[in-house]
Amino acid sequence: MDAIIYSLPFLMNGLGVTLLVSAIVVALSLVIGVLLGIGLIYGPWPLRWLIRLLSDCIRGIPILVLIFVVYYGLPPLGLNLSSFWAAVLALTVFKSAHVIEYVRGAVTSIPRGQMEAGMAIGLIFPQRLRYVILPQAMRRFLPPWLNGVTDAVKGSALVSLLGVVDLMQAINQVIGRTYEPLPLYVLGALMYFAINYSLSTLSKVLERRYSYIRE
Amino acid sequence: MTATNLLQIDKLSKSFAENQVLKSIDLSVAAGEVVSVIGPSGSGKTTLLRCVNFLEVYDGGSIQIDGREVGYVDTSSRKRRGEVDLAGMRAETGMVFQSFNLFPHLTAEQNVMLGLRRVRKKPLKEAREIAQHWLSRVGLSHKADALPSELSGGQQQRVGIARAVAMDPKILLLDEITSALDPELVNEVLDVVRQLAVDGMTMLMVTHEIAFARDASHRIVFMADGLVSAQGKPDDLMAEVATNERLRNFLSRFSATAH
Amino acid sequence: MAGSMGYQLSFNQIWTNFDKLAEGLLLSLGLAFISILIGAIIGLVLAIWYVSAGRVARTFISGYVEFIRNVPLLLLVYLVFYGLPTVVNISYSAPVSFVVTLSLYAGAYLVEVFRSGLDAVPKGLLDAGKAMGLTPWQRLLYVRLPTMTRITLPALSNTFISLFKDTSIASVIAVPELTYGAQWINNKTFRIVEVYAVTTVLYVVTGYAILFGLRLLERRFRVER
Hints:
The structure holds three protein chains of three kinds.
Chain A: H1 2-6, H2 8-42, H3 45-60, H4 63-73, H5 83-108, H6 112-120, H7 125-156, H8 167-178, H9 181-210
Chain B: E1 5-16, E2 19-30, E3 34-38, H1 45-52, E4 60-65, E5 68-69, H2 83-91, E6 93-96, H3 108-118, H4 124-137, H5 153-165, E7 171-175, H6 186-198, E8 203-206, H7 210-216, E9 219-224, E10 227-232, H8 234-239, H9 245-258
Parallel strand pairs in B: 3-8, 3-9, 6-7, 7-8
Antiparallel strand pairs in B: 1-2, 1-4, 4-5, 9-10
Helix pairs in contact in B: 3-4, 3-5, 4-5, 5-6
Chain C: H1 2-6, H2 12-16, H3 18-52, H4 55-69, H5 73-83, H6 94-120, H7 123-131, H8 136-166, H9 178-189, H10 192-221
Helix pairs in contact in C: 3-6, 3-8, 3-9, 4-6, 5-6, 6-8, 7-8, 8-10, 9-10
């Protein structure tokens, strides 16, 4: 038991890496996913086709395999990334594909009449997007996206398989010294639970704040 | 009503896949005139209206507002207007929708102000004054800060009208604006339209309110099967019932169900 | 950049070892299939229990669902395989341990699916059942469950596909499924790009083929709502 208590600072460092990986992945995938999502809905057909194909393929690959593909597959092609960045890149690609679908779902759920009303008062396309579509899409996008944030945190545990010392890897290393797997895995599970449960609670609060504007 | 027509539609045609909704429509509206379009459902009334501000792309014929071709650079070449040009033309035609289509994330006042701010580029203060003016004209000054979800159907539609007329359009298009309303809310909306007619607003409206069309419009157009089957001053049109069988059928069915 | 010049693609050794991938793929599908069956039983029992349960039971069910959903599957796999046998006197092989984990995991997601499915059964149907004089159990068996099954089919299909992808995590405890097969070939041949290219295609094609098949099946059972 003492060994576990002494290992707490080490676990906290791991937790920090987990949070860092998750934060980078969530931020990058948000930007990429929103841009590509809008491209998927309103872009010219070759772009739409390309984004649809990419998104479908990426979502069809297990995230673990995608991480290996990026980590082992890029160096022979001449691109060397550290295990940290390879993992972040793979998770970002994966997450972006999901954000694209959240965007598509959110935007296409807005009634056609909204776009038409914007046309009727003379707004040009970027204005209709900025003032009519996106503000409304925002609140439909938020719940699934916030749910997806917890997925990113959970997915980040896979970076441990590349040797990145995140929370998962830190736990395994402490177990390697103490030979007490059960208490440490339970402790680790509780730490992940604490992060994700607070995130999903936060998302419920945000959802409620945005839900007062129902048509 | 020849050279001075504000809206001039010639030989307008439009198909959805195999289905030719508009066959060859000729219709004109003079400045200050109120024209109602009636007819059985599926006769193409709404499509006609939506062609006038190019929400529907039409296949053949021509639509001109104030001498400018709608949607295309000119009548003959069929070259589409650019996005900015098209938006500019749409700003000249107000439209009120059957399902209101208010922006649910904006208050009543913000709904009216959006076009004034972003299309007309009015300063905030002026845009707000115009919005307040029109909201008070439709009797909703006290609801300026309400979201659409907090308004009744009739109130929402009145905001819809304020949003359209605040842009100071040359012509107002009204697409069955009372069909989605509970019966007791219809009159508050029609009263607003009546007032606009008195003020000289040019209007083209598709409606099922025959009685309203009779007393509020200068002219009624009866459409059937994608064609204008009859038109004239309300009383003249009603007199045509004797000779026009389709009109007779339509009106009799109507009075049987609605009254 | 020199590396990119020097690397020559060669699939020969992938094809000679293809049996590892083929067997791996079958095992992946098998693991996913068994897990969704057990998971569906867990999910259904808990969903029905939840609807009629008191507060304590509800808290217990929610606790299980929330715990599983908020913890990485990788950690759960380790916990069950390495952690549990140290305190409970059980020993099981890696595949069995993984099936236990994935079933519990699937169960947590399916509780929610079935719960909303039960809620989505139109009230009129239940009233009709009542009017016919069916007992509560009969209403559940003959009205609620069949209707719910049709409503939840799309979600079940999606869950199966994501479980199929999740089986790749079994490779970390050396279950010889598809990802493990890929790693095995890689260790032997160092044909890293080729083996992961083929593996990726296998996952994507199999996943979408199954999804396509399930969608056809759903269409046959579709219920108008």
